Structure formats: C-alpha cells, structure tokens
C-alpha cells in the first residue's frame, strides 16, 4: 500500500529543474531550484529544503459517467515526451471544508465543470491529484501535471479556465511551480 | 493538526476493558484484553499487541440538510455516563472503492439510509468515524461508539439495521470489539 504515498522534495538538485515559482495566493514557499517526486511512506522526514507529502486516494466527486470516460482516455503519466511539468500545491479555506458533500459537488461540477475541463485536455495534459489535508500537511492538495512542450499553450488555457471558476474562490493558498525534465 | 490522528492500541492493560471480540467477516485480529485510544501522529509504531491508526476527516457523503441536523444534535463523546463502547474496524471490498462517488452515495444514502439510521439514535449512541484506507492501514475505517448501559439495546438495534443494508454487502472484513470503561 505504500506506493500510494509520495514525497515531493524541493532542493538544490533533483529530477526536475524549476523554471518558475509563483505564489498566487497566501504565504510563499522557500525557493528551490529542483524538485524530485519519490514514492514514500507516512514518516514525516524533512528531505531537501522542503518536503510535501501527498496520498493517492479514491475520486471524491466524480460520478459514474465521467469516471468511465476518465479511465478510458487517461494517459499514463510516464510518457517520455512529457518533458514539462507543473507542481501546484493548493489549500482551500475552512469555508470550503465546512460545506456539505452536495454543496462541494455542486460548486465543483455543476458550476465549475472541474472534471469536464480537465477531461477536455486529456490525454495531452496528464494530471494526478495527491491528497494532503488529512495528514496534517500545509496544503490540502498537491496537483501534478505533465505535458509535452507542444501542449504548453493548452496547459495555460486549462489553468486559466480552472482559476476563474467559483471553486477557485475557495482556494486560499496556491503556489505554481513550473518544471523541466533534466535530460 | 495532529489532534485529528488517533491510535487505538490493543494490549493487556489500558483504558477500556474488552468484554467481547467477534470476527464477523474476514481475518480475525489478535486477541487483546484492553483497548486505549490516544491522540497520535502519522508515525507507525507498534504499541501494545496491535495498533490501528485512523484520521478524522471531512464528511464524504452527508448532504447539507443532514449535516445541519447532525451538527445540532450530535452529543459530545466525552459524557461521563457513557461507560460502554464498541470499536468496530471495517474494510470494504475493491468493488466498493471502484464505484464512482454517485454510486457509493446512492448505496449509502438512498438505499441504505446510513446517515438517517445513525441520526435516529443520536445523541444516545455517540459515534465517531476514523479513516484508515489512505494511510495503508489493514482496515478502511475504525468506527467508535459510546453509550450508557441503558442504551445498550438501542445500540444493538442500530448495528442490526446497518448490517442488513446493501452498503454492508461491500464489507469484507469486520471485527466487533465491545468495551467497558474501567472505573
């Protein structure tokens, strides 16, 4: 089961080179030049300059029809031409977490079209969500995107669309770290 | 944030005396005579004969109307006359986890009336759910009930009602440990 837990280690060397770090909301994070994603466990060790831990979990909002579609078109994150990545840790406000399931779902799907927006860019923009809130981490989610240089514009469009949704008004901390694969 | 993580330690001494251990489904658990619930962290240490770890999280299925009702009638688990308790670790099958959110919700609420059944017995039967699946524990949930001796029959009725629901057909491991407060 430990393969569902991952550490994202920001440091002075590593697998991915940081090309840009932007604090979009809330407190910034210490600046690092490299990021490495490693399979980990629940032990909170501070590796590198900082370590953010996330867990792969079940889908919390996706309904049957969308889940089937997602599974059929989802691209494996390991494809070799995806030399660009984005690591975007996010925290949502207490107001969000105090909402009931149906209220959160309504904001995410009916109003913000979260799943449909992401799906539109699949398989070009591969995305993976890691949960961090329940394990006492500073962020609630670590989002991880990988794409080929030719899909960089599509990626910007995807982010732009997500960030102007009602769902995003509940985001109170967001750091956008762009990465390039060391070759 | 560490107060959301708890260890349930089964041992030869402790806060609660075990009065009965029943394996209802799946593999049994080592027999212990006492159980202690302690505030913990994510470090997996084996204390006592066994340690089961769980995390308090947000409600995953409860809708607005029910959430408001729950909050208004929920009794504090610390009341002194609740000298009986039940610790029931549960695992659900892969078939359950492969369902989409709306399918799980439909089985839990529309068909199994999970929230309404629990609510009917509040505040007499205080209940708390701890999540374990995402942190690689052997069970998916640790359920914890506390009640006064006068409500013991109501508690049996609650369990009987939950166990014959469609939701319960997805439970593939369940241990029922009954406890009495040491006074």
List the main descriptive attributes of the protein structure presented here:
homodimer; 183 residues; alpha+beta; Alpha-Beta Plaits; eight-stranded antiparallel sheet; 5 helices; 8 strands; 34% strand; oxidoreductase activity (chains A, B); heme (chains A, B); ChdC/CLD (chains A, B); Dimeric_a/b-barrel (chains A, B); metal-binding (chains A, B)
Tell me what you see in this structure.
The structure is a homodimer of 183-residue chains. With 183 residues, the first copy, chain A, is of the alpha+beta class. Chain A has a single domain, classed as Alpha-Beta Plaits, CATH 3.30.70. Helix content of chain A is 24%, strand content 34%. Chain A has five helices and eight strands; from the N terminus they run ββββαβαααββαβ. Chain A has an eight-stranded antiparallel beta sheet with strand order 4-1-3-2-8-5-7-6. In chain A, a hairpin with an 8-residue loop joins strand 2 (16-25) and strand 3 (34-39). Chain A is globular, with a radius of gyration of 16 Å. In chain A, 33% of the residues are buried. Chains A and B meet through helix 1 and helix 3 of A and helix 1 and helix 3 of B.
Short structural description:
2 copies of one chain form a homodimer. Chain A has 183 residues and is α+β, with helices and mostly antiparallel strands.
């Amino acid at each position: 089961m430990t393969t569902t837990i991952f550490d994202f280690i920001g440091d002075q060397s590593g697998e991915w080179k940081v090309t840009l770090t932007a604090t979009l909301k809330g407190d910034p994070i210490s600046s690092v030049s490299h990021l490495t994603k490693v399979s980990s466990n629940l032990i909170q060790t501070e590796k590198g300059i900082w370590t953010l831990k996330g867990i792969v979990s079940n889908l919390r909002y996706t309904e049957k029809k969308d889940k089937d579609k997602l599974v059929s078109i989802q691209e494996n994150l390991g494809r070799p031409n995806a030399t660009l990545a984005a690591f975007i840790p996010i925290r949502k406000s207490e107001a969000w977490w105090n909402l009931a399931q149906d209220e959160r779902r309504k904001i995410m799907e009916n109003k913000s079209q979260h799943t449909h927006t992401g799906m539109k860019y699949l398989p070009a923009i591969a995305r993976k969500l890691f949960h961090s809130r329940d394990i006492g981490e500073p962020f609630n989610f670590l989002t991880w995107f990988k794409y080929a240089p030719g899909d960089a514009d599509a990626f910007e469009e995807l982010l732009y669309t997500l960030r102007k949704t009602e769902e995003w008004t509940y985001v109170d901390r967001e750091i956008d770290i762009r990465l390039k694969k060391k070759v």
